[in-house]
Amino acid sequence: MQQAALEEYSSLARIAAIDVDGTLYSEHTAQLAFLRLLRSTGLLGWADLARLAVIFLSHRFALLDSAEARRRGMAVLDGLPTSQAELLADQLVAALLPRVAREARAEIAELQRGGCRVLLVSAGLSMVVGRLAAALDADGYLATELAVVAGRCRAAFVGPVVEGPHKWSALRSYADRRFGAGGWQLAYAYGNSTNDLPLLAQAERAVAVNAQRKLTHAALRRGWRRVSWQ
Predict the structure, then answer these.
(1) CATH number of domain containing 66
(2) Overall number of domains in the chain
(3) Which of 86, 116, 136 is nearest to 14 (CA)?
(4) Stated pTM of the model
């Protein structure tokens, strides 16, 4: 009976889910790189920059929830041809890759050697996160889908922003489709903030990376591993 249980356990697909912003690289790195890119390409004027600053501060002081702040911020892409958006995504990922912590790259490789399927799970846009996942040789990704109509981007999302509890629900839905309900386990999860708590709490082994204060307290209470990736 014990042997049968061990064989069933070993046959499960083992997933490692890794957050992106604040985990693979420092918090706000992607946002700042994106703003610089928009400015350099002439897609972001001073009025746009001021509006984005108001959105950022409104979110910082809890006047806007994260999903709404993201939606309003995406107004800078509204009407942009998808071909141009994809070129921006290529340029953004090229700027982000040198900022990925070397420890993160090593961890991804080690997890894969141990038989895990590594997924990047992020509230970021799929056209960016997907390219980042491919460049890091991850096995897949789950991210927020930007709406596209008639070949142009819209300031709206297809489905929920993949943050908070939606990280876990998106992963569970993906894994059930890919491996069948009961055919997988979340072996590891990595995150840096309380936004990642719903996902971390479901993992067999949770890892707090460069953890913000509230996540540090949660990790200490729950006995989670804490690491610093530079």
Answers:
(1) 3.40.50.1000
(2) 1
(3) 116
(4) 0.89
